[in-house]
Structure formats: C-alpha cells, structure tokens
Amino acid sequence: SPTIRCFTITGGDAGGEAAEPNHGGGIAAVNAAPVLLNNIISNNYGCTTMACTSYGRGGGIYLVDAPATAVISGNRIINNIADDATWGQGGGIYLEDASPQIIANTIRANRAGHSAGDGGGIAVFEGSPTITGNRIQQNTAGQAVLANGGGIYVHSSAPVTITHNLLEANVALRGAADPGLYSTGGGLTFSGPLAFIYDNEVYGNVANLLSQRGLGGGMYLSGLSDAAVVRANVIARDNRASYVADGKGGGLYLGTCEATIADNEIGDNIAASDSPGYGGGIYVDGGAGLLLDNTITHNTAVLGAVGGWGWGGGISAHDSNVHIQGNSITE
Predict the structure, then answer these.
(1) How far is it, in rounded angstroms, from Cα 44 to Cα 39?
(2) Which one, of 152, 149, 156, 77, lies nearest residue 116 by Cα?
(3) pLDDT bucket at 308, cuts 50 / 70 / 90
C-alpha cells in the first residue's frame, strides 16, 4: 500500500519495460493498493513507436487488481498518451479489475490512441471504481478508425459510480473514421448493467469530430439494467454526436437500456451537422426503460442541412418500448 504524494512524474515511457511492457507511462501498480495524492503526472507514454511489443495502456497511471482502498486524489494528470503508434486505452488512467476511489483530480488533454482508442481521460475494464468530483477536460480517445469515450470509457459487469464530475470538451474520435464504424461517447461511453451516474455536468463533448457516424455526443450508455441510476445530470452546451453527418443522440444515446433516466437537464445539443441526424437531445435504440421528469430543450437533430433530413429534435426512439413520462420537451 505505497503512498506517492506531491511528486512531479514526467517524461516516462513504459515501452519495452519487462514486467508490464507498454503499461503505465507514469505509474504502474499491479496487485497493490496505492494512495496517489497531489501529484503532477504529465507527458508520459505507455508506448511511443510501432516497435512496442503490445498496445499501450495507461499513459499516466496503470492500475490492475487494486482493491477499494486504493486512492487517486488531488492529482493533475495532463498530456499523457497511452499509445502514440496504434490502439491505446486510458490516456490518463487505465483500470483493470480495479475498484479505486478517483476523487477531485484534474484530468486534461490526455490521449488514448494514435489511431483507435478507448478512454481519453479514463478507461475502466471490469471492477467497481468510484469516479467523483473530477475535472475531465479536452481529452481524446483516438485520431482515426474508431474511438470510444473521449472523457471516460467503462466496460464492466460490476457496479461503477460516476458522480459530480465535469466532463467538458472531450472528443472520442478526432480524425477520419472507418466508413463502416460508429464512434461513441464524446464525454462518456458506458457498457454494462450497473451504472450510478448522477449530478455530472457534461458540456461540449463530441463523439465524432471530422468524420461521419457518431453516437452520443454527451453520453453513450449501453446495456443498463433497471437497477441502474442516471439522474440529475446536466448534458448541455453543444454536445454533438457528429460534426458532419449520421449522428445519433446529440446529448444522450441509450442502447438496449432498461434503466430509469430521470431529472436530467438535456439542452442545446446537436445530433449531426449534416443529414441524417437522429435525436438532438436523446436517441433510444431498443430496450424498455423509462424517461422520467427530464427537461429536454432547444436540441437539434440536424443543423444547417439543405434538403436533408432530421428525426426527433428532442427525442428519437427506434425499435424500443421506452416509456416517456412527465418530461418537459420544448423548443
């Protein structure tokens, strides 16, 4: 249970390191419960060249098999890159089978992958972390082909808590996409049954910046069970699924979700800048959840297209038994 406090950790490159090659450019911890407090972790690399023996994971911090007593708090995690050659995960922080408390950090301008990437700021693979009170800004998941979760990417069958964070100006895919693939979640991509997502501010995030086919400018949520909680978030200020065409869910994309989505403010989001665009505020694809008492205002399915088509400025639902009750849907 080491404590690392008030250090500047910079210039690290994990490429070729024997024990965990290309994992943890700044800090790598395996089977441990580290307490990381008030450090500056910047300009580190998991992997920098095509000669790396595996893909880069965790540009700033790589944490595997860590219990809930592990803590990452009060750090500035800035300008780290998980993989600057191909596919990377967790530009700022990478968690695998780990359940730390990630509290009150600044996680900014990190990048997961050179081409494809997952989790520009944070990537979570299994485990039950608590992510609360962080400023997660200007991170990028990938620059070409495919990317997920500009700010945060989660794939976990266990409960994950994401509360009271600022997710702002993150981009899932910044460059040219593979024409057959969708990039997801400018602010957050979550795949799993048990999310507790509440009281977050989600502003100006983009799923796909320069190419077509983006899902969920603010959040992309998939597979949530009826026990999940998505409540009292503000998803606003020009989140976009696609800055070009074929965007779904400018603010929020729900894929086969059964959860109650309640008391959220979803406003001034855009699904696509060219035709087609679906669900300026919310796009629902499958599932049978509940949209309850949300304020959905001034969202746009397609912005500025001439002779193009948009579906559902506020909400677009496809192949779904979603129940829509008590919402204010205006402008």
Answers:
(1) 13
(2) 149
(3) confident
